[in-house]
Amino acid sequence: MKKILLAFLFILPLLSNAQGEASWWFFGHNGGVDFNSGVPLGNGSGALFTFEGCSTISDECGNLLMYSDGSTVWNRNHVSMPNGTGLSGNSSSAQSAIIIPDLQVSNVYFVVTISAGAGLQYSIVNMNLDAGLGDVVPGRKNIQIQQNTQEKVTASLNANGDRYWIVTFDDPTYTAYQAGGGLIDTNPARVVSSTIPVTSALTDARGYIRLSPDGSKIANTSIGSAGSAFLCDFDNSTGVVSNPVTLSNGSSASNRFYGAEFSPNSQLLYLNANSQDSGNGCGTSNVREVIQFNINGPAGWQSSPVALGNVTGTASGRGALQLGIDGKIYQARTCLPWLGVIRDPNSLGTGANYVDDGVALAAGTTSREGLPPFITSFFEPSFLATDANMGSGGGNNNPETDFCDGTPIQFDSSGSGLCATATVNWDFGDGTTDNTFNPVHTFPAPGDYTVTLTVTSGFYSNTAVDVISIYEIPVANPVNNVFLCDSDMDGTEDRDLSTSETAQVIGAQTNPNFAVTYYLTQNNADNNTGAIALPYTFNVGTTTIYARITNDLNAASRECYETTSFDVIVANGSGATAPADLVVCDDDNDGFFTFDLTSVETEVLNGLPAAQFTITYHTTLTDAQNGTADIPNPASYVNTIANGPETIFVRLEDMNPGGCNSTTDFDISVFDTPTANVVPDSSLCDTGNDNTEDVTLTSFDADVLLAQTNTNYVITYHLTQADADADTGALTSPHSMVGTTTFYVRIDNSSNEPCYDTSSFTITLDAQPVANTVTEYRLCDDVSNNGSEVFDLSTKDIEVLGAQNPADFNVLYFVSQADADAGIAGGASPVMPSYSSAGQTMYVRIENATNASCYETTTFDLVVDDIPVAAAPMTLVVCDDTTNDGIEDITLSQFDADVLNGQTQTTFVISYHASQADADNDASPLPAVYQVSLGTTTVYARIDNSDNETCASVVSFDIILNEQAIANTVTEYRICDDASNDGLEDFDLSTKDVEVLGAQTAANFNIEYFTSQADADLGSVGGATPLTIPYNSGDDTIFVRIETIANADCYNTTSFDIFVDELPIAGTPANVIVCDDPSNDGVEDVNLAQFDAEILNGQTNPSFVVSYHASQADADNDTAALASPFTVSTTTPNLFARIDNGDNNSCYTTTSFQFVISPTPTANTVQNMIACDDAGNDGSEIFDLSNADAQVLNGQNAASFNITYHPSQADADANTAALPTSYPSSTTTPETVYVRIESNTNTQCYDTTSFTLTVSEQPTAGVALDQRGCDDVSSDGIEEFDFSNVDVDILNGQSAADFTVTYHTSQANADSGANALTFPYTNVSQSQTIYARIENNVNTDCYDTSTFGIEVFARPVIANQGPITICAGIDEVLDAGAGYSSYLWSTGEMTQTITVNQGGDYDVTVFNADGCDSTATITVIESDVAVIERIDIGQFEVNTNQLTAIVTGSGDYEYSLDDFVYQDSPRFNNLYPGYYTIYVKDKNGCGTVSMDAVIIGGPPYFTPNQDGYHDTWQVIAIETVPDANIYIFDRYGKLIKQIDAQGIGWDGTYNGNPMPSSDYWYLVELSDGRSFKGHFALKR
């Protein structure tokens, strides 16, 4: 029987939408592209005007359906749909919308929108509405999906092909929703969230998220965060996002990513990369690149993209990337009438061929940042393949399909979803083609075939490619019946069918994947269940065996099989026992040997009496079975196959009458005997000198083998001959030997280890010398400094040897490493111990005196060091510093150059010392800054070679320190000018000597005065002329030089100023008249500084100072100066003014004057005047200014003062331009009025104040429309209102900044402005009047009111229904009820009733005449006939057995054993062994199914009295397990009988004799290892 693989694969149909649904694009500023002509052509008919987000969709033939910017949906006529405005998207969102068809409801589309405020929402468009132009379904607009999300959304088909995944992102979580069946599923149990912590870098909401066409990858970008782009895996069966990879543009400055798109084959990713975030501008300074990532590239691909285009300039802002139906990728060109294009996006690198000016747009239109996104799976076609004999049997989305050879395969292009004008072409990869939509094809032979489907629609073709695997069906060749003897007379015989019968089943077939198994029934063989274990015990008699040969390559190929059958016949009698194989070692390795075959006879007989049997030997099984062509001399048989193995067949023939013949076999083999060739003795160096050394024993294998090439030879090494002979204690390689060791080699034949040979060899372990570290050998050059000296190398022997015995080792010196490694034995010559060198590296070799190959080397350097010569610097004479503390710090390094005297060796080091001894011994070096005292200090300089400090030279020099003169600070020298004020006077400079000297002794120093710093620095010793004394001069600076008489170089200078101060002359002011303060008490505080100008009388010297005094004496002595302000009265005497030179107050003159006081009025504060404007609101009103007089006077005598009003402060001060008291204000408000009040007797005594006139605008309340809305689900007539949206009507064009609107429940409250309503406001009756008040914010007395109504409409009443139970596949009518104006079901239907045949929750929304809606849910429970998966059996008991039905299905089930009495439990207890039928009935009447079951168990008794009832005992139903073994024992455990599971059972006898009535035990053993036992009664 042959078996062909069942229908295996279900793949989604070819998405011909890729040829039509993406044919129209609308984007940017009225930009559009039409692909229907075969090339993209610019089109300017679109109404869309957007900076970023947009979306478009067409039908399968490329006819435009609709497009959107996320806020408005336009139909194919470029007119907004009637209900297509006010969508929650925002056109400035990067991906503001995507349009997705509902795969489960025809002509219905989801418009998914996104914006920062509203989040992710969707609206439903039904293309049947608006006469086929489509419209947003009422009540199905702006349905919330997710509140918080970035400006990103993408979509792809799910793995089942029945819904679309919608994926969005909110840092750092990807969320996937499934769309279909009239809704986008937001049930948390089915929403898939994947948090990817690393993507938290995507903090900027602006960017793109994009799924690959094959739905396996998802890319994500953010323009505002540098380097923010990620690629993750996407599982379109679960919606899970995982395995993030960070993408970067290497070191490029263009590292802000925006647009993203995959190549059509999903292998390459393209990003729009920018150097800056150009926002919604044109990016005039942005550097833009299109970069390509090879997703499957070598390590580092994620940071090494290929740049396809680099653009900067007038318009190079960020832009989206979008795959087109022509297989090319297009880039948005910001602010330009162009699209860029990647012409070959499946090609690597620059071969992708990016063109910046790729597609010209229509005149007057421009591209902006966005392009319309499409469902990515539009661009990933596929097709369906099923077994034509079986129909579509479900399956998976695996891109491979698997069938058995010869299977007719039904291919399906899903032609019903293609455009009517589309054509198809199939290439089956076997040289045949077909152009029908759904062909049936049979492949000619096993193999993998690449099937290609090409669909052409209009000017475009799409190709789907898949691999169909055809597996070979094996042939089950016929098998000879098997004849066996019951060798031990126990009624059974074992047989391993794999030893002979398997080869017959396979025959000449060579496929290594073919596997053979054996079964007891045809059903088990077909289902590949219950294969028997080999060897299998056969009962005496005939057993039919079913052999199955299977293609075991993989799970799919295992369904490709064939079966055959044969009988195994077991006859009573003895059988031959298989003897052990005969194996010998070849004596001459020619492959042949003389065997005594009769040596196996004892094993063949296995205890059988030899006299009863005849044994013959044969070279074939047929001869052995037939008793023909036996070997004539079996005791001396030479094998015919060199080395073997050769099979000998034995025939054992029972000589008794009716005896059984049986056969067996054994192999004879001859194995080569290896030779252990002698390995020469050798020696090793003890590298660690620990008397141990690792030796690689396998390195001696070649010596042991020599010319032997048998790959079965195995060599081992041992420490004793006994171990080698016994093949025990084999050493590992490398082996750590201890001291000199003898090794014993064993070589044997691994196929037959007794074939072996041994030999031995010795390895001697010699001491390994150690070349210890040798210090460098340095000599100081002689005075010639020729760089060469003679070295005694033997002085280094002791360092080389260390603690080693010199008698055991030789030490030699060489000039190269090669010579040191070669040594004398290698032909190298060592140098003599007395060796002349200019410096070099010496190579030392120390070697074992008895084994020169045991050596080690080291190196040391010979160095000849230069000897320095020190030169003496000149004596240094220095002055003490200004502290004259008798010590001075000297930087000794200043003498280094003199000491070196031109020597430039970098190793020469200079140090300074206080004594010759310290310098000679290089001891106590002086610090770098050395302190010397007054007088002479001798310093000793030492110069030595830092590489060899014994090479040194010393010299001395002196440092002399003298006292330093100090020029102390000198005060200025001032003289008052005489009456001439000519600015010249005589100065005695010598009077300043004492200031210059300070505490210094005058006898030790000389002081001179000069007119410049240069002369002071030169001094008279330098040729400068000092000033004479006295010195006639005006203002000047004098420079002083003080020098030490002993050393004129030790000098210091300072300076001071001399001044000739001007003599001031005081002017005389007239008597002063003062206005009294408001108290008019005759006393007044006077600011005396106001008279300074008259006292100065035109003198402008800024140093002149004026002061005021009460007497002439105080003025002369500059004492008791009066404070200002100064209180004067009518009794105040004359005041005396003094003017002096502030630089020299001895230069002064004085004068005097007197005060007169008059009374002064006060202008008191006046309140501002405010008035409401008239109805004309011209900004001007009449004000009576005289109303302010009383406030100005505030109690002062009106008869004493005069009050006037003025337009400015200047007019008030000047008493000009007085205003009339009945004053019309200007139109500029507020207006300031200035008040003047003056004394009638002295107009100079007056005061002013001011106040404002304000004219407030009079508001007018506009009339608002009544506010009406639908009640909520409570239907209580009460709702919350927010009247803030009415403000604009009340304001009616008036400024909201100038006026405030409030709302009230009564006219009185509105007039008073009291009890303003807060929001939300809850109405108190279903219909109510609201009073609006508008008032001026500056003057709330200026107000107006109006009214409007509010009303709450009742919602329609509809209740949830169900649950309603239906049977699967049976139609049921759901009725929402009559009396509503319109209906909308979750299925998209818009009728009062709908017909369903599947379970689920069906939502229906009903609308009344007021436009109010309510939604109810009708729950439909789908019931179905049960599927009994299996019945679990608890058996092997007498009366406590169980049956449990394991069922699946959507129904509510009950269970019965008789189809009459039912129970809820699927378990039946306390059952007797026997045959049962379990019935499972759906309680909802959807049907009844049944399954048979068998309980195996032993009956409790039997009565073998031959009355026809219970005459034999057999395990009930055991025939269902034909391979069971059944044993019966008496109560003492003696085996009485083994019975056949398919026999009638035990008749109660033993060896023909009836057994007594008693209790007997049974044991049942099953082939799977299980067993059970029990007892029963024999009754007679």
Automatic annotation (TrEMBL):
<protein>
    <submittedName>
        <fullName>Gliding motility-associated-like protein</fullName>
    </submittedName>
</protein>
<dbReference type="InterPro" id="IPR026341">
    <property type="entry name" value="T9SS_type_B"/>
</dbReference>
<dbReference type="InterPro" id="IPR013783">
    <property type="entry name" value="Ig-like_fold"/>
</dbReference>
<feature type="domain" description="PKD">
    <location>
        <begin position="409"/>
        <end position="457"/>
    </location>
</feature>
<dbReference type="Pfam" id="PF18911">
    <property type="entry name" value="PKD_4"/>
</dbReference>
<dbReference type="InterPro" id="IPR022409">
    <property type="entry name" value="PKD/Chitinase_dom"/>
</dbReference>
<dbReference type="InterPro" id="IPR035986">
    <property type="entry name" value="PKD_dom_sf"/>
</dbReference>
<keyword id="KW-0732">Signal</keyword>
<dbReference type="InterPro" id="IPR000601">
    <property type="entry name" value="PKD_dom"/>
</dbReference>
<feature type="signal peptide">
    <location>
        <begin position="1"/>
        <end position="18"/>
    </location>
</feature>
<dbReference type="Pfam" id="PF13585">
    <property type="entry name" value="CHU_C"/>
</dbReference>
